[in-house]
Amino acid sequence: MQVGRRYSLFQTLNWGRKYILWFLLFDSIVISLYYFTQWSWMAIPWQPISLIGIAVAFYLGFKNNSSYERLWEARKIWGGIVNDSRSFTVYTRDFINNDDAQTPQSEKQLQHLRKQVVQRHIAWLYALTYQLRVVKDWEHKSDFEQELRTYLGTQTSPDSYKKLANYLSQQEYDYIMSKDNKASHLLSLQSKALMNLRKEGIIEHFRHLEIQNHIRSFYELQGKSERIKNFPFPRQYATVNYFFVLLFIILLPFGMLDVFNTEIWRAYIWVAIPFSVVGSWVFWMMEMIGDYSENPFEGLYNDVPITNISSSIERDILQMLDETDLPEVTKPITEFQLLV
Predict the structure, then answer these.
(1) Quick one: residue 328, left, alpha or beta (phi over 0 = left, psi -120 to 50 = alpha)?
(2) Cβ neighbours of 121 (radius 10 Å)
(3) Of 2, 66, 75, the residue nearest 232 (C-alpha)
(4) Please, which residues have CB within 8 angstroms of residue 7's CB and are 6 or more apart in sequence?
(5) Which of 60, 83, 97, 202 has its CA 20 to 30 A from that of 260?
(6) Which of 98-107, 112-121, 167-176 has the lowest mean pLDDT?
(7) pTM of the full predicted structure?
């Protein structure tokens, strides 16, 4: 996610530079053919092209609104994870005590139990992050984008999960690594551990139910994230939109010939080239924005920054336990000011 005021004009142009070059080449060929051959049939009346352009613009608006909804829903889901993580930690800190304990524990032992629960939750945050960053077939995975993921640190591999060993016992880590959906089983493990504390009286029954409500909430938030990740923006809409935009871009320079084929502008027919390029660029950029917004967990520049959110949650909830060994504050990286 870009966290500066805005992308600069150079960055925006650079993002679509190869397409601008293609537009420039194609439009120059069309205008040159018309100029040197005097093929008047090449000048298509502007009215039918503008009709197609209006239809494409409406369709682009629909797609971009839908893509933005997916992106914003993903951000709201992780906002819910932030809020519930804080509440869960406060309940863990306050509800794990000796009030009903069958065998009272020392304050040091109680603090150790609280930290275990919180660290297990942190492991869940990172496990979910890694799972959401696995690249799907419909997501962007050109060589450049794969290299960018590696540079940003969002490339997921089996080795990524080694970080979970910092938050779990060896037995818990081995158990989790044997599962496919590691995040889901971490919540299951958390629930089992809390139940054991309830049986020992370390957590009172009704307080245990309150904490369990948060486990249920984490399952719901994980499921919502997985729904966005595992169900793509419908391919029929994305495909048709792509071809409609491409059709309009191909027809655009022919329509510009008609616009500039007047007594006033005929001597300046070459002006049709930059106007065609700009028109093509505007429509193609709208297509690209929607295309890169529909997958908010793919680990690129317009993502929801779930690694940053997880790290921020970790700092926040560890401080609630008065811990001092905290992760560093993550800062924007690259000249694009990206949080990942």
Answers:
(1) beta
(2) 24
(3) 66
(4) 15, 336
(5) 60
(6) 98-107
(7) 0.90
